[in-house]
Amino acid sequence: MDEIVAEFIRRTILKIPLAEVVKILRIWNFLPESQLKTLNLRQSKESVSQEVVELCKKKHASMKEAAILDIIYHQTCQIKKIWIVYKMTKAPGEEVDLFDMEEFKDSFKKVLQRTLKNVHISFRESEDNAVWIRVAWGTPYMKPNQYKTTYVVYHSQTPFVFICHCRIKKYIPELCQALMTAGSYHEIRQMELRSLYLDSLKAIVFKQYNQDFQTYCTPLEERNLETEIVDPRIIHENMKEKERIQRVTREAFGDYVQPRIEFAQYKLETKFKTDSKNGILAEREEPFRCLVKFSSPHLLEALKSLAPAGIADAPLSPLLTCIPHKAMNYFTIREK
Amino acid sequence: MAASQKHGVLYQLERLEAHDQRSARQQGGHQGQQGEETKLEAKILKLRKLRDELRTKVKLHEARARIPIANLEPYESLKNSEENLEMKLEKAKAFFQAFHLTGLSGKVTTKGVCICFNTAFEGNILDSYYVDVIIKKPLTIHRHSVPVFIPLEQIAAKYLETNFQHFMYSLSEHLNAYSGRKYQADQLQCGFSAFLARPLQRNPLCTLLSFTYTMDPSEESFPFCARLVYEDLTTTLPTSVTITYQGTAATPASWEDQRAVHETLFYKNALHKVFESFLKVK
Predict the structure, then answer these.
(1) B209 to chain A: which residues are within 8 Å by CB?
(2) Which residue, among A332, A334, A326, A331, has the nearest Cα to A87 in the 3D structure?
(3) Is A38 in CB contact (< 8 Å) with chain B?
(4) Rg of the Cα atoms in chain B
(5) CA angle at residue B214 from B211 to B218, to 5 degrees?
C-alpha cells in the first residue's frame, strides 16, 4: 500500500473522536466485522490509528477507498468548515428533469477531468436523495493533494447545491461548470447564505423548519403566560405588555425550533444620519460604509429570546426576522 | 348663674327628656313598635324577592318568543320530521364522501387556510401533504410539507394568483401522480426483489426507473434490462419503455417475443401489477 495512502488513513482516523471510530469503520465496510471487534480502543488514539492502518495495509487499501472513508467522516462528524449555498436555474422550457444518477456522475467526472488534469473525484450517495462529491485538486505537474479537498452536496431534482470550499479557490468556475453540465442546468449563482451547519442550511432552503402540521388536526390553544405565582393577591405588573411581546414574537418566529446559524452580516452603505448640522460626519454625500455582524452559537434562537427577555423592543427589525424566510444571512443595505 | 340655668344646657336636656317620656307613653310600648317594624321589613324583602322572580320569568318568556318561526313546525307530524332528518343526514354523508374522494380538505387558520392533500393510488391511501396559504394580496404560501422536487413554485407562479381552483387541482394531480409512482417503485423493490438481478435505480421524483429482471430467477435465462421514463409528471404510467439485452450473446426469438409483450404490459399497467402477472404465469 502506498505510504501516502497509509498516512492519509492514519491522519483521518486521528481526526475522528474515539467513540465514533468503530461506527465509521463499520459504515465504510472495508474492514471485516471480525477485525473491527478485535480493535483495542483502550489505547491512545495514535495507537488505534496505527492499528487500523496495519489492517488496511493487509487488505491493500487504495486512495479510492481512503477517499470514501474521508467522505463518511465528513458526513458523520460536525466539521468546522463553512458551507455555502448555490442555486442553479434551468433554461426556460427545460423544466422536466429526468435525473439519472449514473449519468450525472459520469458527466460530472468527464467535464471536470477534461478541463483540469489531476483531479481525484469520489462520490457517495446518501439516503435523502443527495450525492456527496469529494474533489481533491492537483496541477498538471502534481498529483492531487488529498488534504485540500472541496466537498459538494447535491440534492437531485432540486436546484440547490451546498459547497464547502477548500483554500484553493481558483477552480470554482470549473467546478460550477461541471455541476451545471452534469445536472442539465443553465446557470448557477451563489446565494447569500452560509453556515457551519449543513442541516440547518438544508432546512432553511427546503423550507423544512416549520413542519408541525399537528395544528391542522387540533385547534391551537391559547397559551397562558407561565404563572408560577399561586397566590392570587400577587398580580403581574405590565401583564398586557408581556402578552403583547409574546404574541409579536410568536408571529415573527413561530412556535418551532429555529434552524441553527451562527452569524448574520449586514453591510451598510447608507448615508450617515444626524440631527445636528455640525460635525465632520454631517451632510456627507458619500455613504458611510459599515459592517455589522451578529454572532452567536445559535443566532436565531438568541434573537427570538431578545424581546421576551426585555433586552430589545418587540417587534424586532424585519432585517433580523426575515433570515430564514428570505434564506439569507449576508445583507447589503443601500440608500433607498 | 342660677337665673341663666333656666335657659342653659341642662334646662334644654331636661326639656328633651320630658318630651321623650311623654311621647313614649303616648305610643304604647317600645317592644310592640319594634315588632311591627320587623314584620314590615320581612314583608318588604318577600315582595322584593317575588318581584325579581317575576322579572326573570318575563325575560325568559320574551327570549323564547324571539325564536324564528321557521324552526317551529308545530303542525308537522312526528313521522315526517324523522324522514326529513334522515334525508338531511344522507345528503350530508354523500357530500362528505364526495369531498373525501377528491382528497382535498381545508381548515381555516388565523391568517388564511391550510389545505391538506391526501393522496391515493388504486385504492391505497398514501401520504398526505399540507399547504398553508395566507390570504392577503398577493396570495402567498406560508409553509408546506410538499417534497422539494415537486415543482410547487412553478405551479404557484402559474395559477395561485389567477385561478386558485386550478392551482389546487394541478398540485393535487402532481402529488397523486408522484405518490402513485413512488408506490409502484416501492412495491417492485420490496415485493418482487426475487425477479431483480440488480437493485432498482430510481430518482427522487420516480420519473426514471431502471432495473434488470429475469422471468425465472433460478434458471440461467436471458435477463431483460428495462428503462421506464415518465415525462409527464401528472401520470402514473410511463411515457416511454425500452427493454434491451445488455450482454454479448445473441438473443433467442422467444426472448424477442417476450420483450415485445413486456413492453406493452409496462405501457398499460402499473409496475407491480405486471410483476404480479409474471408470478401467475409461472
Answers:
(1) none
(2) A326
(3) no
(4) 45
(5) 135
A315-318, Cβ contacts within 8 angstroms, sequence gap of 24 or more: A315/A248, A315/A251, A315/A252, A316/A252
Check CB contact under 8 Å for A99 and B114.
no
* Confidence label for B11 from pLDDT (cuts 50, 70 and 90): confident
Give φ, ψ of B124 to 5 degrees: -95, 125
All three cell numbers of B141, joined, read 404560501
Q: List the beta bridge partners of residue B251.
A: none
A49: number of Cβ within 10 Å: 19
A260 contacts: CB under 8 Å, gap ≥ 6: A195, A197, A199, A200, A298, A299, A300, A301
Q: Which spans in chain B are helix H?
A: 9-26, 30-65, 78-102, 152-159, 164-191, 253-268, 271-281
Radius of gyration over alpha carbons of chain A, in Å?
26
Q: Peptide bond before A315: cis, by omega within 30 degrees of 0? A: yes
Order across the sheet with A160-164: list the strands.
A119-126, A130-137, A149-155, A160-164, A83-89, A187-195
Give φ, ψ of A173 to 5 degrees: -60, -40
Contact status, residue B149 vs residue B129, Cβ threshold 8 Å = no
d(CA A120, CA A142): 12
Quote ipTM for the complex: 0.79
> Model pTM?
0.76
Cell, residue B126: 398514501
Interface test with B, best of A157, A212, A326 (most B CBs within 10 A): A157
Closest CA to B112 of B157, B142, B154: B142
Per the structure block, which three cell numbers stand in for A32? 471485516
Entry field: residues in chain A: 336
Q: What are phi and psi of A3, to 5 degrees?
A: -65, -35
Residue A154 CB neighbours (<10 A): 23
| Cβ-proximal residues to B269 (8 Å cutoff; 6+ apart), any chain | B237, B277
A-chain residues within 8 Å CB-CB of B208?
98-100
CA distances A151 to A28, A159, A163, A164, A167, Å, are 18, 17, 6, 5, 12
Q: Please give, one letter per residue, the 3-state secondary structure of A199-214.
A: HHHHHHHCCCCCCCHH
Q: Report helix, strand or coil for B73.
A: coil
| Confidence at A220, pLDDT banded by 50, 70, 90 | very low
CB contact under 8 A, B151 and A101: no
Looking at residue B70, its pLDDT comes to: 47
Chain segment B210-266, per-residue pLDDT in tens: 999 888 766 667 888 999 999 888 999 999 999 988 877 777 888 888 889 999 999
Does A101 lie at the interface with B, CB-CB under 8 angstroms? yes
